[in-house]
Amino acid sequence: RMEGHGFYKLPTGTEYRGALWDGMFHGEGELLFPSGSRYRALWHRGIPTQGKFVFADGLEYEEKNWHYCDGYDRRFYTEICSGFKPPGIPQLTNLDPPKTIPEGCYDCGDGFYNPETRVIVDYKFRFLRNADADEHEWITRTCRKAGGGRAEQKPKP
């Protein structure tokens, strides 16, 4: 079994770097996600006992007093750090410039969604998952669509 300090890459592309004991994450370690985000934690027999999640853009998740995109302040993290763009120049995503979306697809945050095939691929066009009915409805209702702008904003029935 794995013991000591090491690296372990999961089939999803997520990588663990840190202490291992009896084949489990145990002690200080960090999960590095393909998106660039990371989760640093103190692990006990494979279970995190305390930790900190940091998004790919550097935004640190705060379990208490979380104010990012809370309904009152709708700025992207890059706007919080760098300020707003001049009037008339919209910022549609946290990335600037935003990803170019393939024709007929939606940008769903972790990749592109094709509503015809109901398949989500990452930004390098590698398969992520098939969307169920709820995810399909949410993506087509709320996410940015190829051709600019957002999907039609239809109220939920």
Features:
single chain, 157 residues, mainly beta, 5-stranded antiparallel sheet, 2 helices, 32% strand, disordered C terminus
Brief rundown of the structure:
This protein is mainly beta. It has helices at 77-82, 133-142; strands at 4-9, 15-21, 24-32, 38-44, 47-54, 106-107, 112-114, 119-121, 127-130, 144-145.
Can you put this structure into words, describing what you see?
The chain has two helices and ten strands; from the N terminus they run E-E-E-E-E-H-E-E-E-E-H-E. The protein is mainly beta and 157 residues long. Among the domains are: 4-54; 99-145, no CATH class. Residues 149-157 have low confidence and may be disordered.
What integer value in Å does the Rg equal? 19 Å
Could you state the order of secondary-structure elements as H and E? Answer: EEEEEHEEEEHE
* Major sheet strand order: 1-2-3-4-5
| Proportion of beta-strand residues | 25-35%
What is the average per-residue confidence, as pLDDT, rounded to a whole number? 84
Distance between the termini: 53 Å
**Beta-strand segment tally:** 10
**Which percent bin holds the helix content?**
10-25%
**Total number of helices:** 2
Largest sheet: 5 strands, antiparallel
Q: Return residue spans where pLDDT drops below 50 for at least 5 consecutive residues.
A: 149-157
Output the structural class: mainly beta
> Looking at the structure, what is the overall shape?
globular
Protein name: MORN repeat-containing protein 5
Pfam family, one: MORN
Subcellular location: Cell projection, Cilium, Flagellum
Organism: Cephalopterus ornatus (Amazonian umbrellabird)
